Amino acid sequence: MNAVTASTDDILLKVEHLSMRFGGLMAINDFSFEARRGDITALIGPNGAGKTTVFNCITGFYKPTMGMITLNQKSGKQFLLERLPDFRITREAKVARTFQNIRLFSGLTVLENLLVAQHNKLMRASGYTVLGLLGIGKYSAEAKNAIELARFWLEKANLVDRADDPAGDLPYGAQRRLEIARAMCTGPELLCLDEPAAGLNPRESLVLNEFLRGIRKDADTSILLIEHDMSVVMEISDHVVVLEYGQKIADSTPDEVKNDPRVIAAYLGVEDAEVEEVIAEVEHLQEGENR
Ligand SMILES: Nc1ncnc2c1ncn2[C@@H]1O[C@H](COP(=O)(O)OP(=O)(O)OP(=O)(O)O)[C@@H](O)[C@H]1O
């Protein structure tokens, strides 16, 4: 979907004038962007640009200094995320996330990790009573559903044959996919992934790409992705937003962003005064290509 043509009904997440100050450092400065329903939106930028801080504001880990973050569910319900505590952002607004460093229960099996993710739903079904847990009422039906859902995501993550192994025994790339599968077991409308391809080899990155494309196709979940691995970003994203020093410098399709001189200059670490020079060079190269 093109960045310019989205209607307001398509907007799942709207970030407006977001700012986050840490003491004297303005980590995010008047940053606005939109993520459309059904899209994979990538948030990229050089180290320290503020990407994780934006994620932390969206998911309630930080309360922004200023700005509004609106999540529009498909049901029509609207949530102002900057006003909600993190557990309500997960449970009610249905925003799930993964972290830069893997946070699995490494002593539990792969399947158990996916069931733990559904703990809240199961406890509600038990009515928080022992009788409920013993199978009277809705609990047994919900427990069966939880196992079905875990199986579904095990298959999608290509982990069925490792279901009974401790999560800590999986290769790195498989642990990354398990984390994402675990987040999917909470039924999110928005899945925020913080550098899912970090540390993966090229083959594992390809498997990850397929998995993320599968999520977009099979689940009603949109993805917001922070990623340094451009082979992942350019391959699977519908829309790319670029941050530099806490401010937006580009917001467009992967192809346009890839050729944007300001983005190239930011990644090369060029001083502001030299940006014009880089722009001229890139334009010159592009003219050469088009000839
Ligand atoms: N809790 C905090 N306290 C103080 N400064 C912070 C805090 N969190 C982030 N920062 C600062 O805010 C800036 C943005 O950091 P952030 O981690 O959001 O960048 P990033 O784009 O995610 O970087 P990377 O790609 O290296 O992960 C950095 O200068 C960082 O040191």
Structural features, described:
There is one protein chain. The chain has 291 residues and is α/β, with parallel strands linked by helices. The chain has helices at 51-58, 86-91, 110-116, 119-126, 130-133, 139-156, 172-184, 202-218, 230-236, 254-258, 261-268, 272-290, and strands at 11-22, 25-36, 40-44, 66-72, 78-80, 95-98, 190-194, 222-226, 239-244, 247-252. The chain has 3 domains: 1-94 and 188-253, P-loop containing nucleotide triphosphate hydrolases (Rossmann fold, 3-Layer(aba) Sandwich), CATH 3.40.50; 106-186, no CATH class; 259-291, no CATH class. It is built from 12 helices and 10 strands. The strands form 2 sheets. A 6-stranded mixed β-sheet has the order 6-7-8-3-9-10, with helices on both faces. Helix 11 packs across helix 12 (272-290). The radius of gyration is 21 Å and the shape is globular. It binds adenosine-5'-triphosphate. The site of adenosine-5'-triphosphate (ATP) has 11 residues, from strand 2 and helix 1.
